[in-house]
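Cross-check.
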Amino acid sequence: MDLSTLAPARGATKKRKRVGRGPGSGHGKTSGKGHKGRGARSGGNTPPGYEGGQMPLQRRLPKRGFRNPFREEFNIVNLGQLEDRFEAGSVVDPDRLHAAGLVRRNGLGVKVLADGQLTKALTIKAHKFSGPARQKIESAGGTVEVVTRA
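Predicted model, tokenized:
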């Protein structure tokens, strides 16, 4: 085998479409652009969503809703998940939660919710706690620490 025998795989390459080269090519005369109109002119292509002058769907539909620019997003962690993954007396912080696979996006804050039971005394550091979660952690002998975002 040498360089002269190398060729692309079958179907990997395509011949260039040579338009305007006579009727035998199948792309002669108008070069596949039809007669007159916007599509036949130079630079004449229709933008996506163009409906031939009719009011486009995007503008026919009403505007709805509101996007709050001050909304804070949190990764949600439930107490039942902490019960399974951490030993008694350990410190649980956002980095440990990320390493354990309980938190996906490390840049967001962490909010602890009260779903499930907690029987171990854990020191939990998070950005937010629900009221019942705080009570369950403290009744199990653990401590709650609120962490601020950097």
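Residues 39 and 46 are 8 Å apart (CA to CA). The domain at 76-146 is CATH 3.100.10.10 (Ribosomal Protein L15; Chain: K; domain 2). Passed to J.P. for a second look.
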